[in-house]
Specification:
With 166 residues, this protein is of the alpha+beta class. The protein has a single domain (8-162), classed as START domain (Alpha-D-Glucose-1,6-Bisphosphate, Chain A, domain 4). Helices cover 23% and strands 38% of the residues. It has helices spanning 2-5, 23-30, 34-42, 146-162; strands spanning 9-18, 49-54, 62-66, 76-85, 90-98, 105-116, 122-132. Strands 1-7-6-5-4-3-2 form a seven-stranded antiparallel sheet. A hairpin with a 6-residue loop joins strand 5 (90-98) and strand 6 (105-116).
Amino acid sequence: MATELNKSMEGTLCHEFETGLPAAEVWEVYGGLVVADLIPQLLPEVFSKVELVEGDGDVGTVLLVTFPPGAPGSQTFKEKFIKVDNENYVKEALVTEGGFLDHGFQKYLVRIEIIGKEEKTSIIRSTIEYEVHHEHANNPPVVSTSGLATIAESITKYIKEQKGLE
């Protein structure tokens, strides 16, 4: 019985967005630090500021992300890139302090995959993997891909505008 109480709750949420753009073009933005510069400009209501703490956009890069004023809970969180795969277009970022970790999460990982389909289109698959502390299992924190979905749509629109496609 005592071991049951110490179990954490785990889960995965996934969102897919079809871009109408080649995977390589989408990865140009998502693969490095460009996406971190664009999000506060395109979506200040999601993140008001994203600052580079250390790194160059590759594995080990740490970002300090600031929520807009008035957002509930922690105003900032740090995330670290733990995987950047430029061949398969996969990036993983793990929240290392603040934000979601202050709301009962033990682990909060975001994986972005750019999946090429036919010649001219790709899918942005945004996945959240999480673990919730056992003491929050009865009243788990809310997990949602809506922010990632909004980012995928805005980045896609931005790329299309830059290419003169919108």
